[in-house]
Amino acid sequence: MREMRDSGVEWIGKIPENWIKTSLLNMLKTKICDGPHETPELTEDGIPFISVDSLNDSKTVNLDSAKKCISNELYEEYYKKAPLEEGDILFSKAATIGKTAIVDNRKFMVWSPLAIIKVDANKCDNTYLYYVLNCEDLIKYVSLLGGYNTQINVGMRTLEKAQIPVPPIDEQKRIVEYLDSKCSKIDVILSKQEAIIEKLKEYKLSVITEAVTKGLNPDVEMKDCGDLRIGYIPITWDKVKITRLLDYTNSYPIGDGDHGLIKTEDYKDEGVPYIRVQNLGWGTELNLDNVIYISEEDNERIKNSELHPNDVLFCKTGATIGKTGIVPKDLPRANTTSHVGKITIDDKYNARFVFYYLSSEVGYEQFWDIACMKSTRPELSIEETKAINICIPRDRKDQDEIVEYLDLIIPEIDLRIRKAEAITEKISEYKKSLIYEVVTGKREV
Questions:
Q1: Which residues are bridge partners to 22 per DSSP?
Q2: Gyration radius of the chain over CA positions
Q3: Alpha-carbon gap, residue 389 to 366, rounded angstroms
Q4: CA 376/CA 68 separation, integer angstroms
Q5: Distance of CA 315 to CAs 110, 114, 138, 344, 378, Å?
Q6: What per-residue confidence (pLDDT) applies to 375?
Q7: Within 10 A of 151 (CB to CB), how many other CB atoms are there?
Q8: How many Cβ atoms from other residues are within 10 Å of residue 439's Cβ?
Q9: Rounded Cα–Cα distance for residues 94 and 109 (Å)
Q10: Taking the CA of residue 269 as centre, how many other CA atoms within 13 Å lie in the half-sphere pointing to its CB?
Q11: Can you give the pLDDT at residue 13?
């Protein structure tokens, strides 16, 4: 057992006697820089232009997720400010803080949310530093240094001040060899587990889509609905605009929540539930575990968007367009934000059928067909949403039978997904714990 001493830094704790703790900047060739702060002219082809979403659990950048490119001329211009070189470390300092990757020999450019860290190879192994920067405790520590929470921003000068543990260079290389070996094996297990989750989600989507477009009777006579993505539907079904299903006794049967009237400081610990995008799911019931509330007075100010049982909800902005929800019967009223759309269905129709339809592959595709770019993100307008088509049985009894079937089978699939995700979470936590113990010297290798 080697001798340990207190590092004097809370996130690090004790380190071996022959290790040092120092600022991140002391291990670098140059100060930390970032990519361009302006939004460039983007193209379909050219040099990949990446941001935070191109960094995942892999050690390298996922260029497949680069949504757009820039011209070679722009690349050359940006390269002067942010010269990306093989071996540099990327660290996300905005949006989701702490995602990392090591730059390889592929040609791409980064946007301003990514910090570029150039390691001095004489002092520090870049892969060792990559593992240090992956530590959750360091990410929390850096966020506190900057006075921000982990969803906002960390300045480059703040990041440079971060105290890190540094062993002798030969020990760094042993640590890298050990963690590369261990983490690659863990990643194989995680990859298999994630494949299981993906298959379950695909199965769930196919079950919903089949039920809400073909019905439950495989022998029923079919007809062409005139929509190539759906093809044939039962002869007793109709394809209608969603507006035909609305409850027009409600003064606001299709719409969204308040537009900026409710501020973060208006959130309460109790009162009227205020539904946000994070409460919606992918064909699941509303997740009210993290619901926040607004006062009765604020609810009166935005009474127009008040929600009631069986209102169908959908996300209308950003990358999560297509998330859905339905207000449960045991939630007599709630309200919502402008990022969430709501549809009140006439009692002649089963609102849960509409919820499942919008949660299907056809519903998801229609949302994205009518979404358009507003500023830097996709968005649905309520007027565009009124153009959505729904195939629905004429007979309410047939709607009810399909809903009953899906209400039985979908929770079972969701349970299997949650169990698989829980296993994945445990494996991920073990990996994080292993990295922390090794890069702080608490586990000798």
A1: 164
A2: 26
A3: 8
A4: 12
A5: 28, 27, 33, 15, 11
A6: 52
A7: 10
A8: 28
A9: 17
A10: 0
A11: 97
- What are the CA-CA distances from residue 7 to residues 26, 121, 126, 342 (Å)? 17, 23, 22, 54
Distance of alpha carbon 430 from alpha carbon 415, whole angstroms: 23
The residue whose two tokens read 């207190």 is 6
CA distance 341 to 258: 10
- 316 — phi, psi (to 5°)? -120, 5
Residues in CB range of 427: below 8 A, 6 or more apart: 186, 189, 190, 193
Q: Answer for the pair 34, 116: CB distance below 8 angstroms, yes or no.
A: yes
Q: Which of 111, 89, 101 shows the shortest CA–CA distance to 34?
A: 111
pLDDT for 364 equals 94
DSSP 354: H
> What single-letter amino acid sits at 362?
V
Helix, coil or strand: residue 275? strand
What the chain holds in terms of domains, given with CATH numbers, is: 4-167 (3.90.220.20), 203-394 (3.90.220.20)
- How far apart are the C-alpha atoms of 291 and 298, rounded to whole Å? 16
DSSP state of 377: E
Structure tokens of 152? 């906002």
Low-confidence ranges of the chain (pLDDT < 70): 146-152, 373-376
How far apart are alpha carbons 278 and 46 in whole angstroms? 35
Tokens (6 digits) for 38: 């302006």
Structure tokens at 101: 């990757």
Q: Which two tokens stand for residue 155?
A: 């300045």
Listed in sequence order, the DSSP H helices in 41-97 are: 72-81
Q: What is the 3-state secondary structure (H, E, C) of 386-435?
A: CCCEEEEECCHHHHHHHHHHHHHHHHHHHHHHHHHHHHHHHHHHHHHHHH
Cα gap 314→363, rounded to integer Å: 11
Give the C-alpha distances (Å, rounded to integers) separating 204 from 98, 356, 407: 32, 11, 12
Cross-strand pairs, 106: none
pLDDT value of residue 150: 42
Indicate the SS3 state at residue 127: helix
